[in-house]
Structure formats: structure tokens, C-alpha cells
Write a structure and sequence with these properties.
- The complex is a heterodimer.
- Chain A is mostly helical.
- In chain A, about 50% of the residues lie in helices and about 5% in strands.
- The longest helix of chain A has 23 residues.
- By secondary structure, chain B is α+β, with helices and mostly antiparallel strands.
- The longest helix of chain B is centred in the first third of the chain and has 28 residues.
- Chain B is elongated.
- The relative contact order of chain B is 0.12.
- The chains are: A mainly alpha, B alpha+beta.
- At the A-B interface, helix 3, helix 4, helix 8, strand 1 and helix 11 of A face strand 19 and helix 6 of B.
Chain lengths: ~350, ~425
């Protein structure tokens, strides 16, 4: 009984310490470490994993892991008949690997691990340093644009599929359109730059499809840089990986939940949200508050002053909860506008 | 007048003969042997002596005939066709330019005896054996399409009974390779399995054929590198330098190794314009002074000699040019053939026959693609990126400026 009490006391102390944590600082260092691992891991002979649910770009020769999307696009080019062969097993194994990694951290892959996300956060920090105001989408624009990621996800599956198979008797798509999403992903053009590799910045004139895709890739890169400068997590709004995560988010072991009865709809969480999810403040009915654009950065939990209104848990074990004490601790020394840049 | 005319006739005939002689000589330079021609036409004693000496030298090299390995046509279609995995690994062949290459990899097939001069010519000649494409023979295999069993066709079906095939697996261990003698062809068969095992990576296939003739031991070796890889097995070996680098086998009398033929991901990556380093190894040790000849499909040839460390290097020529942009194939795959020869004064006995010289010749094929600099443009990429940033920045600036202006609202004058 005594031991149980001691354990209870200890866990209370740990939980208090965690709840008072400056999650932003923790996130910064976690992102930096993940970036080093995924982008430079190869220098230390690290191959952390393949088929990760985050951008670990294969175009970066010295990467420390590999993104699932490139493998998925390759595999989707399989003819229908081969789905039931050994190749089908390969597709299944890759998906299960991706799924196993995904459920571990749920959408926190975006908020804590994704190197492209980290770059956007660093660009945001630069903008704040320069004292330039951020931009936001209007509510109707937000609603319309958020669907783009689902369209991109559908395309990245359907386009390779139409390379290996004929749809409705139409001719097969040229293999020059292989890995179409990777061709326009800013991860392909930007991540190799951190290795000093500028080769992905070039436009490929070897064929019309390649020229179109690589030109689009550079246009998206330009949009990424300018967009991320003015709009926090600009690209995440259109990211098909984020859409993929959202489809499977219910299986995630890491959860972000809300107790609507404790919410006063102060709007702190919405203002702190980098992506600008309005429902986090408005929705007082849903328990699972992870929306398609959420990247599980937990900034909303950090700025919530209501006791246990927002909660992060892993396998039901609370890891990080909104507390009044934690809120005031984090707010100490901060000005009114901090966190709203 | 008649006498003068007679003289002029003689002089003209002499002039014509001289012109004919020089023109013949000039064309002969490109032909078999300058010395033979000179000795025949000029009849000078030194030239004749030189020709005799040269012929004597060549006579020793009689019967040596390089041995080549070719990829046997796969049952599922022509080798080199595209996989269904979305990779664009191989090249469409029909667009390959240039004249059809000379046929016949072996002079024996043409019923000729091959002397060293002819061999040299053959080595440097347009792709010995290129014409065998009609028989489905290929000098490269499709990449990243692993199959559990591979067959290679030997260029010479008259290899000796004691010829042996060797297989060194990617992990350095020895595998099993067997020579299968058929009526029309001789195959070398290897088994690599279909898993991420000892054969995952570059597997070296060798054939060694020996014969004593005229007091010389002639050794012919042929090498083939089979890349047994599926991207589905992962790319962990890119961190294992020992595993991913081209390897050599000490038991091979003469072997050609390259410094780099594929990337860490086991994707073949030789491009036109690349400088390739070669090392000739005689039983695993550097072979200084070895003669090396590199020939591409378009008949470009480079002759080299290895230095004291058995090394040499050459820059691969760009020899693929499309007539039109739409016809250009980035993955156009060409093959180049490397032939190396090396002679030693070793003496000994082989199968009861004594020899006091050893003459070795070895061959190897590899593939290459067009250079990326020919179709990649950094400036176009940067223009596209900078233009987007500029337009985006201006758009945001304009949007913000517009929002700063006071609203033009119509106010109702309530007093009126």
C-alpha cells in the first residue's frame, strides 16, 4: 500500500512536471534532432527505417530513412494481375511498415519529425525575427483549399496505377510520369540542398512529362518558400501525407482529446494553432479533436488555461494536459502578442 | 614530238602510279597493317624485315580469341524492358542511332584464324558481337528485376572441356555457376535466389578457358556483373563499402575492375562523359602494362595501357544523339565492351603440354546512359523558382497594401 502511495506521488510529480513543460522548446529540439537523423543519418551509416510516414527524401543521398510515398507510388504502378503475386506481398509489407510507424505517433509525425515541416517552422521564426506580419486564410478559402491534399493523395495513387493499367480502355500513362508527387514535392528540391546537392533544382528537358513535372516542382518550391514565410505551415495544408494520416488517425496510439464541458471557448487554442483550425475552439462536442490539418504540435494544449480541457495521451496514459498552473508558468515573461506571430 | 609525247606518257603514268601508291598507302593506314602494305608496295628491305618480325610476333598470338558473355534473352520478353514497378530502368532500343554494328564476335565463327593484329583490330573494332543482338544477345541486363536464375551465353561454343565458370556472390562468398553445353550454344547458369541474401548486390560471373598452343598458354576469361537487387529489399548496403563496391576474385588470371559502376543504391549510374577508373588484376595483383581497349556501340574506341599500379582511366564519350527532342530517351542504354590483354613470360605445363609464355585476354561489358548535363537546366529551374517567389511576394504585398486603405463605405446622412 505504501509502495502504491509512493508510486502515485511520484507519478503525480512527473505528470506535474510534464504539464508545466515548455512544449515549444521541447518541440524545437526534437525537430532539430529528427531533422539531423533523417537528413544526415546516412553520414553515420544510419538507415533508421524505410516506409516512414514522413518526408525522409530518397533524393537526399545521405538520408537516414525513407519516405513511404515514393515506394507507394512505385508500387501502385503494378499491373492488376501482379497484385496477387509476390509483388502484392511487397506492397502489403510496405503498407504495414508505414502503418506500424504511423500508429506510434499518429499525426505528431508532422509536428515533431517531418523535416519539411521543421524547415517551415524555421522560416516562420525568421519572419518573426524580421518583424513581418503573418497571413491567414479567410474561412471560405480555408474550407476550399483544405481539400487539395485529398486530391493530391488520390492523384499520387491513381497516376501510377494508370501507368501499369488501363482505365476504361484508355491508353496507359507514360512512365515518364513516374513518382508524380515526388517530382512536385518541395522535399525533393530542398532537402538535398542541406547536403550541398543542388541537382534537384534543375528542370529536366529529357521529355515533355519530365519537363512539366520538374518545372512544376520548381514552381511549388518557390510557392513553398514564399508561402511558408507568410503563412505558418503553408505546405502542410496541401500535403497528401497529412491526408493519408487523417484517414488512419483513429488507429493512432497517440491521441489529442478535448473535454468540451471544460472549454470556455476563449479561442486561445485557435490563435496558437499554426494551421488555423477553427474547430479546436468551436467544437465542444467531439472528444477526438484531431482534424485533417492538425499536425499534433500540442501548442493548443500549452495555451489552454482550463484544467484538463485538452489532453494528450498514449495508449490511454496521459502524457500532457492543459493545466492552469502550466499555462501561467508558460506565460511568464511573455507579452500579449507572443505566440501569435 | 613523238619522243616527247612518249616521255610525257611515261611521266604521267609514273605520276599516276605514285598517286595510286600513296593513296593506297594512306587508306591502308586505316586498314590492317601499315607495314604489310609498305613492304608489298615499296619492297624496301627494312619494311619487309619489320613486317616479317611483326608477323613473327603475331604468329605467337595465333588462336587467341576473346571470350564474351552475353545476357540470354529472358522468357518474359526482351531483356531490358520496363518493370511494372514504375522504374524507368531500361532503354527503348529502337531509337539507338548509328549504323548497325559489325557482326561476329568470333573470327572462328567466320571460319578464320585470328592473329594478334586481327585481334587488336577486333578489340578496337565496332563492337565485336554487337550484331548478335539479332539472336537476342544483350550486353546488359535490366536493372532491379531480380530473378532466381540467370543464364549467360558464351560467345564461343568451342571452349575447352576444362573451361570453368565461377560465381562470386555479392557478400564475397562463392556461389555455384555451371557451364551447360548445348548443340548451338554454351550457357553459363547461376542461381541467385529471390531474397535479400548473400546474392543481394553485385554478383561476379567468370568463365576461364585455357589452352596451350605453340608453346604459349592462352587464357581467355570473360566477366559479367549481375546486379541482383530489388528496391523492396532496401538499400542498406549503401553504407557497406565492401559490399557495394565492385569486387575482384584472386583466382582469376586477368580481371578488369572499375572504381564505380553503380550508385550506393545499386542502380547502374555510368553516364556519357564520366571518367572511369580501371584496374587490371593478374590473380588479384595489379597488372602493369596491360593493354586495354574500350569500345562503345557506336564504334568509338579508346586504347589504353595500365600504369605501374595496373590502373588506367578513360572518359566515356557521348554517342547518343536524338534527331528530335521528342525522340530523346533519357534512359537510352548503350553498352561498352572492355577487352584487356596481358602477357607474361611464365613457363610451366598445362594438361601435359609445356609452355614458356602466357597470354591472357579478358572481356567485360557494362552499360551507360546519356549525360544528365545534356538535358538538365539549372537556369530554367532557378528562373521558375525565382519568378514564383517574386510574383508571390508582390501578390502578398499588393494584397496587404490594399487592405491598408480605408474602406469606401457609403454613409447615410441621418440628419438629412
Amino acid at each position: 500500500m505504501k509502495k502504491l502511495k509512493t508510486f502515485g506521488k511520484k507519478s503525480e510529480i512527473i505528470s506535474k512536471a510534464l504539464n508545466n513543460t515548455d512544449i515549444e522548446s521541447f518541440r524545437f529540439w526534437f525537430q532539430l534532432s529528427a531533422f539531423a537523423l533523417l537528413v544526415y543519418g546516412g553520414w553515420f551509416a544510419i538507415n533508421f527505417a524505410d516506409d516512414l510516414p514522413t518526408f525522409a527524401c530518397v533524393y537526399d543521398e545521405k538520408r537516414g530513412a525513407q519516405c513511404y510515398l515514393i515506394g507507394l507510388q512505385h508500387q501502385m504502378a503494378t499491373p492488376w494481375s501482379a497484385y496477387l503475386s509476390g509483388r502484392g506481398i511487397g506492397i502489403l509489407v510496405a503498407f504495414l511498415t508505414f502503418f506500424a510507424w504511423f500508429i506510434l505517433f499518429n499525426k505528431a509525425w508532422c509536428g515533431y519529425i517531418c523535416p519539411v515541416g521543421a524547415i517551415q517552422d524555421w522560416i516562420t521564426k525568421l519572419r518573426i525575427k524580421l518583424g513581418i506580419r503573418y497571413s491567414e486564410y479567410s474561412a471560405p478559402a480555408f474550407k476550399g483549399l483544405k481539400n487539395i491534399k485529398f486530391v493530391l493523395l488520390a492523384l499520387l495513387i491513381l497516376m501510377p496505377m494508370s501507368m501499369g493499367n488501363s482505365f476504361f480502355g484508355l491508353p496507359k500513362l507514360s512512365h515518364e510520369y513516374a513518382v508524380p508527387f515526388c517530382m512536385i514535392c518541395p522535399g525533393r528540391t530542398i532537402l538535398p540542398l542541406f547536403q550541398g546537392d543542388f541537382s534537384q533544382l534543375a528542370v529536366d528537358f529529357s521529355s515533355q512529362p519530365k519537363m512539366i513535372l520538374t518545372s512544376l516542382g520548381m514552381i511549388v518550391t518557390g510557392l513553398f518558400l514564399i508561402g511558408a514565410f507568410f503563412k505558418k505551415r503553408f505546405f502542410c495544408f496541401f500535403c497528401p501525407m497529412s491526408a493519408f494520416h487523417y484517414i488512419m488517425k483513429k488507429a493512432g496510439l497517440l491521441k489529442l482529446t478535448k473535454d468540451g464541458s471544460k472549454c470556455t471557448r476563449c479561442g486561445n487554442c485557435y490563435r496558437a494553432c499554426d494551421v488555423g483550425i477553427r474547430e479546436i475552439a468551436d467544437d465542444i462536442v467531439s472528444k477526438d479533436i484531431v482534424k485533417d490539418d492538425c499536425m499534433m504540435c500540442f501548442k493548443c494544449v500549452a495555451v489552454c488555461p482550463e484544467e484538463k480541457c485538452l489532453k494528450v495521451s498514449f495508449l490511454g496514459i496521459p502524457l500532457y494536459e492543459a493545466t492552469e498552473e502550466g499555462f501561467y508558468k508558460r506565460m511568464e515573461g511573455k507579452t500579449e502578442n507572443d505566440g501569435q506571430d | 614530238m613523238k619522243r616527247t609525247g612518249f616521255k610525257f606518257t611515261y611521266c604521267g603514268a609514273a605520276l599516276l602510279a605514285a598517286l595510286f601508291f600513296f593513296s593506297k598507302t594512306a587508306s591502308a593506314v586505316r586498314g590492317m597493317s601499315r607495314i604489310y602494305w609498305r613492304s608489298c608496295r615499296i619492297g624496301t628491305v627494312p619494311a619487309l624485315l619489320a613486317a616479317l618480325l611483326f608477323s613473327a610476333g603475331m604468329a605467337e598470338a595465333k588462336d587467341i580469341d576473346p571470350l564474351y558473355l552475353y545476357a540470354a534473352p529472358s522468357k518474359g520478353g526482351r531483356p531490358g524492358n520496363r518493370g511494372g514497378d514504375g522504374h524507368d530502368h531500361s532503354a527503348p532500343q529502337k531509337k539507338r542511332q548509328g549504323p548497325p554494328a559489325a557482326g561476329g564476335h568470333s573470327s572462328r565463327e567466320h571460319g578464320k584464324t585470328m592473329d594478334r593484329a586481327a585481334e587488336t583490330r577486333k578489340i578496337s573494332s565496332p563492337q565485336a558481337g554487337y550484331g548478335d543482338k539479332s539472336k537476342g544477345l544483350k550486353k546488359y541486363e535490366p536493372a532491379m528485376r531480380p530473378t532466381p536464375k540467370r543464364s549467360y551465353i558464351l560467345s564461343d561454343k568451342d571452349i575447352s572441356e576444362n573451361a570453368k565458370a565461377l560465381l562470386m556472390l555479392a557478400d564475397g562468398s562463392m556461389g555455384e555457376a555451371k557451364i551447360v553445353r548445348g548443340k548451338d550454344k554454351v550457357l553459363v547458369e547461376i542461381e541467385t535466389g529471390m531474397e535479400d541474401g548473400p546474392s543481394h548486390g553485385a554478383n561476379n560471373v567468370y568463365v576461364v578457358d585455357k589452352k596451350v598452343s605453340g608453346g604459349t598458354l592462352y587464357i581467355r576469361t570473360a566477366k559479367w556483373i549481375n546486379i541482383h537487387h530489388s528496391c523492396g529489399w532496401g538499400h542498406d548496403y549503401r553504407y557497406d563499402e565492401q559490399r557495394s563496391r565492385p569486387k575482384s576474385l584472386d583466382a582469376i588470371p586477368l580481371e578488369i575492375t572499375f572504381d564505380k559502376l553503380w550508385s550506393g543504391n545499386l542502380h547502374a549510374e555510368v553516364l556519357s562523359g564520366d571518367r572511369l577508373g580501371i584496374e587490371a588484376l593478374h590473380f588479384g595483383k595489379p597488372a602493369p602494362g596491360a593493354k586495354i581497349s574500350v569500345t562503345t556501340e557506336q564504334q568509338w574506341t579508346k586504347r589504353l595501357r595500365t600504369d605501374e599500379n595496373g590502373k588506367a582511366s578513360f572518359r566515356l564519350i557521348e554517342d547518343y544523339f536524338a534527331q528530335d527532342w521528342s525522340e530523346f530517351k533519357r534512359r537510352n542504354t548503350g553498352a561498352f565492351t572492355v577487352v584487356a590483354s596481358y602477357d607474361t613470360d611464365e613457363s610451366g605445363e598445362y594438361e601435359g603440354e609445356k609452355y614458356d609464355k602466357v597470354s591472357i585476354v579478358t572481356t567485360f561489358h557494362w552499360k551507360y546512359n546519356p549525360a544528365a548535363v545534356g538535358y538538365m537546366s539549372y537556369s530554367a529551374g532557378l528562373y521558375a523558382g525565382i519568378f514564383t517567389i517574386g510574383i508571390g511576394g508582390l501578390g502578398i504585398f499588393y494584397h496587404r497594401q490594399r487592405r491598408k486603405k480605408p474602406l469606401k463605405e457609403a454613409h447615410l446622412d441621418e440628419k438629412a
